Amino acid sequence: MTVVEVLPGAGWYTEILAPFLHNRGKLIEATPAASSPNPFSRQQAIKFKQKLASDPAVYGRVRREPFEPPAYMALGAPDSANMILTFLNMHDLIYANVHGDVTDAVIDRFFRNAFQTLKPGGILGVVAHRAPASMPVTQSFKLARLPQAFVVEQAERAGFHLAGTSDISANPKDPRNIPVFDLPPMLMNGTKDRAKYKAIGPADDMTLKFVKPEVAGK
After folding, report:
1. If you placed Cys at 140, which of 53, 117, 131, 217 could pair as Cys (CB 3.0 to 4.6 Å)?
2. What confidence tens digit (pLDDT) does each residue in 52-111 have?
3. What does pTM read for this prediction?
């Protein structure tokens, strides 16, 4: 299989995918380039490149391709991948324009590009931080969360079919109305309410499997 991992960050999931695919497929990392004009993206890209170079036996066959929304969002040639995976970064695809209004145009482009890149029958796997169903996206993305129905709607609008869901990363203790980064493992709120946040545990996440139909429109 040819698998594309979108925005791998520090490479936590890459550590799982790369060994698994090393001798039985191809792993492509869609990640900002080390030449990115954005300082944070550039720093992340350099660290990720160093990570891959640190262990050629594991990461030697991993290929990097530039991906930095909203400017550049190509995921590959049409019908070129069997699977596209994105872990805990869907909220990063919601952007506020210069007037402060929130637009879903970028996340729409992501799903359409993913649909185009996948082969017929290809799989899009999404793990994302979950917001309450009633919370507006204009509010939830600031907490690094999205309502599950919104994500499903965006994917289906691009042509995908929802093939399955899982609660493997669900956390019923999470009230879903606090910033994800305040919860473990990051605990970015410092010592304030640390005991409360540690008792809640990691954020409640949705795990979704979408499929590109074998026949267009079916």
Report:
1. 131
2. 999 999 999 999 999 998 888 999 999 999 999 999 999 989 875 444 556 678 899 999
3. 0.93
One-letter amino acid for residue 84 of the chain: I
101: Cβ contacts below 8 Å, ≥ 6 apart: none
Query: Residues in the chain, how many?
Result: 218
- Where is 207: in which H helix or E strand? strand 205-211
Please give the domain boundaries of the chain with CATH numbers for all domains. 2-172+204-211 (3.40.50.150)
Which residue type sits at 52? L
Q: Is the sign of the CA dihedral 22, 122, 83, 210 positive or negative?
A: negative
The residues, any chain, with a CB within 8 Å of residue 190's CB and separated by 6 or more, are none
190 CA to centre of own chain: 26
Amino acid, res. 64: R
Position 215 confidence tier, pLDDT thresholds 50, 70, 90? confident
Residue type, 110: F
Whether omega before 184 lies within 30 degrees of 0, making that bond cis, reads no
- Print burial letters for 100-132: b (CB count within 10 Å at least 16), e (below 16): eeeebeebeebbbbbbbbbbeebbbbbbbbbbe
Residue with tokens 């799982």: 16
